[in-house]
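thought: fold this chain, then report.
action: predict
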Amino acid sequence: MPELRRDPIVGRWVIIATERAHRPQQPKCPPEPSKGLCPFCPGNEDKTPREVYSAGRPGGGWRVRVVPNRYPALMIEGELQREAEGIYDRMNGVGAHEVIVETPEHGRSLAELTDEDVTEVLFAYKARILDLRNDQRFRYILLFKNSGAAAGASLDHSHSQLIALPVTPRQVSEEIEGARRHFEHRERCIFCDIVGQERKDRSRLVYENDEFVAFAPWAPRSPFETWIVPKRHESNYEAEPKERLARCAQALRTTLHRIGVACGNPAYNFMVHSNPLRDPSSTSYPWHIEVMPALVQSVAGFEWGSGFHINPVPPEEAAEFLRRVSP
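observation:
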């Protein structure tokens, strides 16, 4: 059973999951699924746990498939059993860890899919949140994608993941608290203020449609970091109708395509930050996507020791470079 341990100084939770050390590093497999090397290719469904969600294709077969992670960071079975060990706090590593297989086509990246295909991926995210939030043990669901070995992916086939947690991640809590303080002072949402300023200034704007804005944040942690934020405030990702998720899919696919062309198809991560499951709808904090290309080689001593990020590319230059890429 994995275990969650709380740092008594800063309140950060750490997952101790020894089982994750045994997950295999899948070798690159050829496009032909008949080779049998990729558990996510059609015909190899028996090589994954039983699916918990599937969206079909018009001509038959599946379009998006969601399965439990075979090597989960947290386990779905069991009770939390919160307890103290002297001054320390711990609990059982209870949660859910699922894999969203984004396409049956092994060689296609998310950026190479159609807007309709990416919409189905984003809708699968919503469907799984709506199901998992019924479990009262879970307080937060983090959706994320690791694309490429440098970003932490162990399988080539395009996929993303979700982890349902019994606590809210510290980074999300800090965002929520910062947004709350701004709202108490200004009676406005800081994210909505940022969207308004970026649309007016346009020097860091990467893409926009009628519902979403993609831009390089003012203080990016790494080169070509890009945020995708809704123009219409909504705190909970799972509250979005499919029509708006379709517009988000357009913004996300375009952003990933432009980063791929501009930066030579780098590895990248993206994370969906949303309001915690048990919190009421928030007027100060909207859900959003943070895209982080893996262009910085490693985190070194200064970053670990200070919490500072050193970024050699100004966001204005990065955004201008991305705007030049054809859609």
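thought: worth noting. The longest helix spans residues 242-263.
final: tokens above.
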